[in-house]
Amino acid sequence: MEMIRFDNPYMLYALVLIPVFVILHVLRNRRKRKLLFYFSDTELFSSLAPDASFKRTNWKQAMFLLAFTFLIIGLANPQVGSRMEKAKRKGVDLVVALDVSNSMLASDIEPNRLENAKRAIERLIKRLDGDRIGLVVFAGKAYTQMPVTTDYAAAQMFLNSVSTDIVPTQGTAIGEAITKGLNALPKDLRHQQAIIIISDGENHEDNAVEMAKKAGDENIIIHTIGMGSVKGAPIPVNSKPGIKIFKKDNKGNTIISQLNQKMLQEIAKAGNGSYITANNTWVGINKLYDEIKKMEEKEFETRIYSDYEDRFQYFIAAALILFILEHLMFNRKSPWLKKLNIFDNQSSNQHLTKQTIV
Questions:
Q1: Would you tell me the crossing angle of helices 17-39 and 54-76 to the nearest 10 degrees?
Q2: For 84-305, which CATH superfamily applies?
Q3: Which pTM value belongs to this model?
């Protein structure tokens, strides 16, 4: 199976210009038609400009948009990992268990708890060197999103896809997330492994402290990062743009989601790890990274996509060809095509008279 990634993924944001180009083209065509037929009716215009063709203008625009799309994809430089290779690495095994329950959308940490958590994990991935990392997501249920790997590009890709919609069952099953983390970690050399739980600590599903103690008994360290504030914030729900609607209880009161520091501290203590509180400007990744580096590293064999091949040249070439064809295509009908008309002049004139410009 081939792995596809983009070397410059930020270039893909330029594709949002496509609908803008379409709207401008439609408005320009409407204005042109209005001006043309303001001074002449359909029959007169067909006689004065029999070679005019709005359809060709549309084809030129479609060709331009396709060329633009290929150009942007080419600049983003798609790469294909066509070969898996064994490599020796030295490091530790980490599993990040990320809370994706709806309470993580609370904005007591801007822009919200979940986005800050994802940014913290991204910074952690960038600092890793030889360590393997896996990802577990949890709400009312826990799922292994990504097994432990040293392919940090793949880890970033999986992280980007995380949202509150990824787990259909609501809740905060931290204990089950720890179990999934234990299962995701290789069974050998447990003292070189850790689970990092990032959550607001509102656990309602299971005995997370007992599960953390079980992990600690197996020499797996449990670190916790608390996302949110003790004061708390309301939980936004799907609503129309510009209108904020917050989750309410059965009595119609707005629910305030608060950081449960006590729960997360107890989990970290049971797992022989540390608890870190996040805020708007600091998520404690440096402190957590220092704790990870204190662990004994081991040498292990891993498989990575080591041979990523550039594919930008195909898209750039296609874009250039389309740009050239678009430039060579005239807005008027080609005179040499008119010579291939198999109909007589009378039928052709009748056809022009009956049709508005295409």
A1: 160
A2: von Willebrand factor, type A domain (3.40.50.410)
A3: 0.61
